[in-house]
Design goal:
This protein is mostly beta strands. The chain is built from 1 helix and 8 strands, in the order E-E-E-E-E-E-E-E-H. This is Leucine-rich repeat-containing protein.
Length: 104
């Protein structure tokens, strides 16, 4: 099952919890067009690809227990100015975390 990019057109979307839904494939970048999105929980799916770098307004992001891989982008932490909670555990990342991620 793939996640629909239409979710990003929900202009009043603030909290989205889609944990344990067996979603697979890459996270659609359109999802982050929902300008009021503050909380995104995608725990326990089979999502893959790289971590999105478009999460500017999020306060809480849980991408744990998926199949995300690669290096977490250098500017990832600095692009998350409002973030209070981040969980990227149990994925397949490689490399070191940048200093901007460690300051969250």
């Amino acid at each position: 099952m793939f996640m629909s990019p239409v979710l990003g057109s929900l202009s009043e979307l603030r909290h989205l919890n889609l944990r344990n839904n067996m979603f697979m494939g890459e996270l659609p970048s359109e999802l982050f067009r929902a300008e009021k999105l503050q909380s995104l929980v995608l725990y326990g799916n089979s999502l893959s690809g790289s971590v999105p770098n478009e999460c500017k307004r999020l306060r809480s992001l849980d991408l744990s227990q998926n199949n995300f891989s690669g290096v977490i982008p250098d500017g990832f932490g600095s692009s998350l100015g409002f973030l209070e909670k981040l969980d990227l555990s149990f994925n397949r990342f490689s490399g070191a975390l940048s200093a901007s991620c460690l300051q969250l």
